[in-house]
Structure formats: structure tokens, C-alpha cells
């Protein structure tokens, strides 16, 4: 029992661990709340992330440690702190092996943040393939928020490579994705970059207020929040978009961004604002103010290790000293040549070499200036080639993506077509089965109707055979013997039912409408009965009155049926023949003509019996023969009894 209890405890512990990890992964990542705070004050958000990290380490929660480290890395990327962010990312990669949740999803988040960290430092051609791989992995996991993160990294990559057209397209894609996923930070970044790129994109007509519209829309999305850090970014990009055409207005926005950055203690923001403001002052002709701002920004850039901003500060210093014709111009040329780092972007290096060439030309060193200009032109050409290669790679990636999409759509179409064909085949089979079942039901119904009809006809036939008026109570021989032995007898006959046959009296009367069937059915029975009563009163010998020739004493002839012939043989007498009838003649039904009897020949088919006036051909039916025979015997008994009664009455009236 103890072993079973221990096993159940382990099972419950595992279930609780799974549920806790599921709850953690179902909730928003910790950096979501941290990033909301980073919009206003990134340093305060960084302290919050460090607090989360310490709490997770004390609790031994590897998942919480990973997400806290990832949030710190994202904030450090925004603050452009290169040294610390690489350290934090390496720690997050170490903690990744101890996660209890979805390791594939965590790995994808880490790779995305790492790409965002590398894109500003190394925006090489390998970044395109890297980002495409991240997209495929995000689609495989079904994470649309990760797709938005990848689109944002793509935008920063194109900005770092000085590809304005591709950066514009990437910013549009990032903005649309952020709007769909309701990610405010990504939406604000995309709007800010769209505003700064509106006047730099080639091949399109930009309106004068287009950049301002994007940036104002970004400010509107803040909804009155403090968002000092985000507002400083917006003001900085606003000044960048105006620096080429309106340096005075751009200087105003740079000063606003500088004030917000100093309020937050954002040294990277202060250095960027000072550098851009010094460039704007140099464009306006205020070389002294530009020199002062550039000298203030240079130590900050050197402290951060941002080689791009350092090169920009040296370029501004060279331009200001060249305009002022200062004595320190030579020393600054040497410092600027030292700042020419191979890790710089080609466009930034070309800009720095242009400043060096101008300074050398101001000192009269035209040969060196010419060489620097050639180097600058070469770097510009390389930059253009690299941009073309980048564009080609992006187009190739888009083509591959479109091809895969087309193949997927084709496979989906084929699958849907196959499903529709299968459904149609199943519907056809169901229709055939339904038709077959309906035909079977109809056939079964027809068989049931026929069976009930046959049963009903059999019941009617049996009912007719059970009727006492159609069947004598005694055998025919006994009835005839009793009728002839008694001196007087009375027989009752129903003239209506006397001629009822298998088809009924009504159908028999209808059949009697033909000439050859004049004495069948109820009408024939009534006629024969009336004829018998008419002949019963004729005079004859005592004790035996003459019975009508059509009834009594008939010999068996060709047209006598097998039922009536025995009765004729038993009750027949030469005196009972009607007058004028030759001996051995029989009365035939057709035309009442007498013919000579030929022994040994049966009644002809289609001829009527002289006694019962029924068709001999119909007597072949087994169930009907008994009914008609009974009717014939009843007729014979009735007329003989009637003759006996008349004779008795005659004797009673005779005088003694």
C-alpha cells in the first residue's frame, strides 16, 4: 500500500508540474509588462527586470529566469549597451537548457532577440537568410506575435544596410502585423520609421506632410501616456526626416529629443541627439555650435563603443574645423582616419572619407584628398552593389516564399478537389442505395398488396362455399331418394341465390348478357323457377305429375355435366320427356334444339348443361364444382317435391 501511495504521489507531482508550466506558458511573457514600462523609462524597466531575475533565481524557477534575462536583453538593445546585452544573451542561452516548457518556442524567441542584437552591428547579406529561417519556424509554431518580431528585425536590418526602399516595405509589413496583433511597441517603432523614410524612398511621390502624418499618428497612439523614451525617439526621427530640407526645423526636434533623453539619463539618446543636432547646425552654418555639440557627444559615443556614432562625430568635427580653419584640423584628420573601422557601414565610411578629403583639401593636400575621394567613391559603389545584392536576395526570398505559397495553395486546392470528389462519390452511392431501397420497398408493397388481394379472394370463395343457401344439408342421392319416396314434400328455393356462382350473381347476370349464357346467374334461376311453376299445373296421371321437360327425366347427353347426369339416370323416365321429343334425344342449351344422343361422348366444351345451364368448361375448377352441383341438386329436389305436392292436392280433391 505504501508503494502504491508513493507512485500516486509521483503522478500527482508530475501533473502539478505540467499544469504549472502550462499556466506559465499560457500567460504573457514577463517582458510584456516590462516593455510597457520601458516605453516611458527604460532604466526603471531594466531595474524591474533585474528584480524579477533575482526572485526567479531564489525560487529556482528556470522559466522565469529565462524570460527575465530575455527582457533585460531587449531593454539593453534599446539603450545600445553592447557589452551587457551580449552577456545577458549568453546567460539566457545557458538557462535555456533547463526549461520545463516549450523549448522550441523559447529557442525561437532567443534567436529573434539575438538577431535584433546583431542586426545593427553586422547587417550583412547572411541576415536575409537568417530572418527567412526565423519566419519559417514562427509559421511552423503558429505564433503570429513572433512573426511580428521578425518583421521588426527585418526593418532594422534594412535601415542598417541603408536600403531605404526595402526598409520602407519592411516597415509597412511590421506596422500591419503589429496592428493585427495589438503590439503597441512594435506599432510605434514602425510608424516612427515610416515617418523618417517617407522622404527617402525612391520611385514614389511623397507628400509634404506625409512624414508628419506618420509621426503625429505615432504620438496619438500614446493616448496621453508619459512615454518619454518613445517620445524622444519620435522627436529624433522627426528631426532626421527634416534635416535634409529644413535643418532649422530639424534642429528644433533634435533639441526636444535631447531634453527628453537627458531627463531619462539615456546616454545613447543624448549622444545621438547631440550628433544629429551638430550636423544640422553645420548645415545651417553655425560651425561653433556644431563643434561644441560634436565635442560633447564624442566621449559619450566612445564610452558606449558605437563605432557608427563615433565616425559621425568625427565627420562633424572635421566639417566644423574645416569651416573655422582651426589649427587642430590636422590632429582631427588623424583621429578621423583612426575611426575608420571596417565594421562600419559602407555609407558611413564614405561619409567619413568625404569629410577627411575636404579637410585635406583645406590644408592644400590635394593629392591625399583625391585618394580619399576615390576611396569614398569606391565605397559608395560597393555600398550600391551590396544594396543591389541585398535587394536581389530579398526578392529571391520573396520569390521562394511566393512559390511555396503557390505550391501550398495548389496542394490545398487538390486536397479540396479530392475531398469534393469523394463527397460527390459518397453522395452518388447514397443516392443509389436510396433508390434501391425505394425500389425494394415498392416491390415489397406490391407483393403485400397482391398477397392481401389473393387472400381476400380466397376468403370470399370460402365464404360462398360456407353459405347454407349454396350447399344442401344432405347428399344429392339422399335428397333425390327422399323426394321421390314421399307422396308429398315441400322444397324451398331462393331464386336470388340459386344462380350464385364463383363470380357472384351480379357478374353472372352480366355474363348472361351474351346469347350463349341465357340461363345462368340469378336471372336464369328465376326464369327456370317460373317455367317450372307454370308447367306444374298441367294434367297428368295420378300420383305423378309431369315435371317440366327442361328439368325432370333428362338423359345424359353431350351437354350434361358430370353432376346432373346421375340425377337424370336416377329420376329419368320415358314419360317425363316433353311431347314431341324423340327417344334418346337430349335438350341442348343453345337454341333449345333436340339432338340424338350419342353415348360415350362427353359434353362439348362451351355448351351449357341442360339441367344447371352452366358452362361445362367452368366446372373444371375444383372449388366452384361443389357449389354448382349443390345448386343443381336443389333445383331437382325442388321441382320433384313441387310435383308431388300438386299430385297430392289432386288426389285430395277427387271424390271417393
Automatic annotation (TrEMBL):
Membrane-spanning parts: 432-453
Biased composition (Basic residues): 590-600
Signal peptide segment: 1-26
Keywords for this protein: Membrane, Signal, Transmembrane, Transmembrane helix
InterPro entries found in the cross-reference section: TPR-like_helical_dom_sf
UniProt-annotated stretches for the region Disordered: 463-483, 501-528, 566-601
Designated name of the protein: MalT-like TPR region domain-containing protein
Source organism per UniProt: Xanthomonas hortorum pv. gardneri
